[in-house]
């Protein structure tokens, strides 16, 4: 890809993916976390999260709320790649903890499973810096009445 390709505004699916990345970055809650979203393609997402002692429970490992946040966000954004008009809402989420995590980088990989109209199903997995899976989850997401184009983070580059 040439330098000129990077300067051109993204359109179509790529434009939607870049707008979802901006939407994630613009959410006030995400200012509390050292995290970044990448949408590599339809039905997929990748979140890079840095876990720190501020995220710990009393026994010195990341609290389950951090696992849920990472898994829900990754599954949500994987599903929302298929909904180009509406913001999705999480309606249920099941998660499984397989290993405690302390400080370090965690990758949350999201993958769309099924549904394209009203209800979407997506799953996510968490992988720690050693490459071990530390958690997994599956969520259902419903199309809301909120137009993506009405959300400032989605609608603009700035």
How would you characterize the overall build of this protein?
By secondary structure, the chain is an alpha+beta fold. The chain has one domain (3-155): Hotdog Thioesterase (Thiol Ester Dehydrase, Chain A, Roll). It is built from four helices and six strands; from the N terminus they run ααββαββββα. A six-stranded antiparallel β-sheet has the order 1-2-4-5-6-3. Strand 1 (34-41) and strand 2 form a beta hairpin. The model is unreliable at 1-7 (pLDDT under 50).
List the helices and strands and how they pair.
Layout: H1 3-7, H2 12-26, E1 34-41, E2 44-51, H3 64-80, E3 86-97, E4 104-114, E5 119-127, E6 133-147, H4 152-155
Antiparallel strand pairs: 1-2, 2-4, 3-6, 4-5, 5-6
User: How much helicity do the residues have?
Assistant: 25-40%
In total, the number of domains comes to: 1
CATH architecture: Roll
- The CATH class is identified as Alpha Beta
Q: How much is the average pLDDT?
A: 92
Rg (C-alpha, Å) = 16 Å
CATH superfamily: Hotdog Thioesterase
What is the count of β-strands? 6
